[in-house]
Specification:
Oligomer: single chain
Radius of gyration: 17 Å
Bound molecules: 1,3-dihydroxyacetonephosphate
Number of helices: 11
Strand content: 5-15%
Shape: globular
Helix content: 40-55%
Number of strands: 8
Distance between the termini: 15 Å
Length: about 250
């Protein structure tokens, strides 16, 4: 049975008072027991966020790490630092990091390695831009993203990997992949994992969908057989919307 996960990626939103208010509201709600709920605040909010959710099942996760262990990398954060405050899951390869911060295949491969070396769970994001979808190149784009930055991972370490399929054209646009488009890509990703590793690994990995998931479309997307949850941006900033998405399972 694959783990169901709903993770909120807050991106560069929510200061301390806003984070306290949102998290206090979330912990007061009855969340779905069978769904692993995660929230990813910005770095300075991770520690206070953990304090607020400590009596709940909500996991506080990071949006990024640096690929190096430590050293002269001004402004960067190492996996070991996150681990020292009890954060052990990180999102790697988000399309915003790829596009705005030029995170290449090779940097992302190193980030994945750095995280797994600290026994982190990695939520590895893949997804094509609109142009690639229009040219019918979306499968090859995603295949390359997996091959170049994730498939160096050992079979054993793959148990700490979650994949998030986020078509770039659906992020923050209000446009979602149709449930059929999501299912088609998730099944493709699972096939690629099976080819690279084996069927048992492929069947055990949770694959999340991300891109304009809202309370009114979550149920249909989550009902697809290869969709094991969601990576939620905008709607995770509102406690009622995020809760409704969690309950859509
Ligand atoms: P939206 O839900 O705002 O489209 O963002 C999706 C996303 O990028 C999550 O990582």
């Amino acid at each position: 049975m694959r783990q169901k996960i709903v993770a909120g990626n807050w991106k560069m939103n929510n200061d301390l008072p806003q984070s306290i208010s949102l998290l206090s509201s979330l912990v007061s709600k009855e969340l779905h027991n069978e769904v692993k709920v995660m929230v990813a605040p910005a770095f300075p909010l991770l520690y206070p966020a953990k304090e607020i959710v400590k009596e709940s099942n909500i996991e506080v996760i990071a949006q990024n790490i640096n690929e190096n262990k430590n050293g002269a990398f001004t402004g960067e954060v190492a996996a070991s630092m996150l681990k020292s405050i009890g954060v052990t899951t990180v999102i790697i390869g988000h399309s915003e990091r790829r596009a705005i911060y030029n995170e290449t295949y090779s940097i992302l491969a190193k980030k994945v390695e750095a995280a797994l070396a600290q026994n982190f769970r990695v939520i590895f994001c893949v997804g094509e831009e609109l142009d690639a979808r229009k040219k019918n190149e979306h499968f090859s784009v995603v295949e390359n993203q997996l091959a170049e930055s994730l498939f160096q991972v050992s079979e054993n370490d793959m148990k700490n990997v979650v994949i998030a399929y986020e078509p770039v054209w659906a992020i923050g646009t209000g446009e979602t992949a149709t449930p059929a488009e999501a299912q088609e890509m998730h099944a493709f990703i699972r096939t690629k994992i099976s080819e690279k590793y084996n069927n048992a690994v492929a069947e055990s990995i949770s694959i999340l969908y991300g891109g304009s998931v809202k309370p009114d479309n979550a149920q249909e997307i989550f009902s697809q057989p290869d969709v094991d949850g969601g990576l939620i941006g905008g709607a995770s900033l509102n406690a009622d919307d995020f809760t409704a998405i969690i309950k859509a399972f």
